[in-house]
Amino acid sequence: xxxxxxxxxxxxAIHEGEGRSPKAMVDTFGCQQNVADSQHILGMLxxxxxxxxxxxxxxxxxVLNTCAIRDHAEKRVFGTLGALTHTxxxxxxxxxxxxxxxxxxxxxxxxxxxxYRHVDLVFGPQALxxxxxxxxxxxxxxxxxxxxxxxxxxxxxxxxxxxxxxxxAWVSIMYGCNNFCSYCIVPYVRxxxxxxxxxxIIEEVRQLAQEGYKEITLLGQNVNSYGKDLDSNxxxxxxxxxxxxxxxxYLLRFMSSQPxxxxxxxxxxxxxxxxxxxxxxxxxxxGCDRVxxxxxxPYDKARYLELITYARKVMPDLVLTSDVIIGFPGETEExxxxxxxxxxxxxxxxxxxxxxxxxxxxxxxxxxxxxxxxEKQVWFDKLCDVQNTISAEIHAGYVGxxxxxxxxxxxxxxxxxxxxxxxxxxxxxxxxxxxAIGTYRDVRITDSNTWALFGEMx
Length: 458
Hints:
The chain is an alpha/beta fold. It is 37% helix and 21% strand. The protein folds into four domains: 2-147, Rossmann fold; 165-277, Transcription Regulator spoIIAA; 306-394, Transcription Regulator spoIIAA (2-Layer Sandwich), CATH 3.30.750; 402-457, CATH 2.40.50.
């Protein structure tokens, strides 16, 4: 990291020598981990003397931080790259960078190398920490730079960061994944699990609490497997309890979790920690045991229900969300309806639902998949109808209650100009003074629908 600081100084000197303060644009696709990574990229660019813009035609440096989880996300990125040929033509010195999970895929890097020759720098997640060095190579070599080698990855502490706003903060506590779910590309592009030392995480969260951040979200591809690679007895529940000791008016959240690493110990810690939100995102993916085995998900329906039952026992006000994939290769209608039945039994507060999307390089992409997309869509619509009804019923139960919410922004609706989140992460549209943004307020819930609550500030 000391070497990266030197490259940062060299780039800043180049900018100053040209008598300019270049503008940079960072466009982020995908998950919260990518958002956290982009905030480090912004921090590095700021130290290089850059200011920021959200207009590609104004930018001297453009960074696209990409996602490889779904085909739709990749198509959006390639569409954006195509459009940037025009900005590059208007400003030939513009530096265009592609990074993130998508960039780490060899076939993507090769496609960019041959078909998107206006892209100057391509690097994967493991190379994020050496962005200054790679950018310096672009500046001084007058050629394109690719850093997408397969590598284990490093934990780089001390990267600069530019956080967006003063209300919410993301804290990565680990990187990579060891699970190799058959449909998922993440272990191939983000490497094996690597946990940060607990002292570094505690220090970062303490600083954020002192600076007045109200929500701090702990991130990891499989956040509750934290600590397995450390030479200590720390696990995720231990980390939560230690972080909970930090003074301040803030709430801790975390995502995303894997049922195989969820435990009664973790749920007890959540229940007993005053700063930890009683919210759990625990992806089930399928309610059919055969499909779960084909997905390489090492739990079954009975174990998932056992976990949920205990979590709700110790946290009666728990808000529970999940991910579900419909139409996995070889899945039958009867098996898909097992998932719908599970959703009806568990009654999630909300779901993130997907029709299976094959990712090249994963085992599932090679599986026989005879069911047409149109039929999968029918199953998917059934799932969504069931969950939407459940969400609407749960939300209706909030009406008339007074809740403490974090006011976090404005809406486009003059009737309810503010947005907020409950401790359980439920979206609230409300009336009130925008001076409340960034603070906790009591709100009376007056109405609801499938996706949100409505209220008035007290």
